[in-house]
Amino acid sequence: MSAPLLALENVSKHFVVRRSLLGTPTAVVRAVDGVSFTVDTGETLALVGESGCGKSTTGRLALRLIEPTSGTVRFDGRDLAALSALQLRRSRAGAQLIFQDPYSSLNPRMTVGEMLAEPLLLHTDLSLASRRERVAELLGVVGLRREHADRYPHEFSGGQRQRLAIARALTVDPKLIVCDEPVSALDVSIRSQILNLLKDLQQRLGLAYLFISHDLAVVKHIATHVAVMYLGRIVEMATRDRLFSAPRHPYTQALLSAVPIPSTGERSQRRVLAGDPPSPLDPPRGCHLNPRCVHAQEICKRTRPELVADDAHPVACHLWHDIVSSSPPTPAVGPEYSESLQRLFRAFDARGQD
């Protein structure tokens, strides 16, 4: 069996936000706290959770844009921490990043052609004519025209800018793309077009995606596997269909119950978490969700539940067996939801590109 394309093994990232007069850390944010997962070629792993749970930090750790406090990140079989500066630079071609805001991620003083040609200058020895041809090819791949190479970012719509960001990520033929909320800043109609473009590119080019999102409707459409994060930790992992049809963790159930669905004539039961997320500076002892969870018992307050790595559907919850057996089916995961979502995307697709 071949090694996964991307593997994070017990990765943590802690930020010191306050020190004593002697330099001793007195306040530390555990942004990512012992995260492990893998992403295979052609797979889309979605990281989901509330804002501030550590999703984007995890994505940057996966690309070694920031250094982990502990743990190992392997890409294409190599430990990124063991690479020299030159080796790391060369590995950048294999993994790229698409940001949430397409406008701020594009240089307003460079034309589209200059932006797309820049990675080719750094990572290839193509001639000027070959670079221009590659730029034109990339624009066609993402649904734009050759003449767009002479324009500046402010001359495009939001959806077109995100297409440009995707084209830039594809410039040097990566194997993995980290998508950090790539459609959350777009209108719903444009969002569906960008998601379908990403899926098409994945099928054509064999790409792997680490897809960071808080929108479970988007995740349902694009992901093959899902990891749910809460306060720096992964609390549940499964294939998309398994997680949406049979969520085990109370936090996952609450997230899914908040997804709007078409009316089926029955009252859906919202599973609302009590209070606000705790401060990452002072997380609760034991299970971090216990102050907000209606199922919490004494063991939840004392002992941190571990994610069972050898289970096909691991969950970090002491009580999940009892919770699943006593809870009604989670709304927003039935066939009506899936079919209506697909109809919505198809309707938007029929309207054409932005």
Short description:
With 354 residues, the protein is an alpha/beta fold. It has helices at 55-62, 85-91, 112-123, 128-141, 158-170, 188-205, 216-222, 240-245, 250-257, 298-302, 320-326, 335-350, and strands at 6-19, 25-39, 44-48, 70-75, 78-79, 95-98, 176-180, 208-213, 225-230, 233-239. Residues 332-338 have low confidence and may be disordered.
Descriptive labels:
single chain; 354 residues; alpha/beta; six-stranded mixed β-sheet; four-stranded antiparallel β-sheet; 12 helices
SSE diagram, text form:
Elements: E1 6-19, E2 25-39, E3 44-48, H1 55-62, E4 70-75, E5 78-79, H2 85-91, E6 95-98, H3 112-123, H4 128-141, H5 158-170, E7 176-180, H6 188-205, E8 208-213, H7 216-222, E9 225-230, E10 233-239, H8 240-245, H9 250-257, H10 298-302, H11 320-326, H12 335-350
Description:
This protein has helices spanning 55-62, 85-91, 112-123, 128-141, 158-170, 188-205, 216-222, 240-245, 250-257, 298-302, 320-326, 335-350, and strands at residues 6-19, 25-39, 44-48, 70-75, 78-79, 95-98, 176-180, 208-213, 225-230, 233-239. The longest helix has 18 residues, at 188-205. With 354 residues, the protein is of the alpha/beta class. Helix 6 (188-205) links the parallel strand 7 and strand 8 (208-213). The chain has a domain at 248-341. Helix 3 crosses helix 4 (128-141), helix 5 (158-170) runs parallel beside helix 6 (188-205) and helix 6 crosses helix 12. The chain has a 6-stranded mixed beta sheet with strand order 6-7-8-3-9-10, sandwiched between helices. The chain has a 4-stranded antiparallel beta sheet with strand order 2-1-4-5. 34% of the residues lie in helices and 20% in strands.
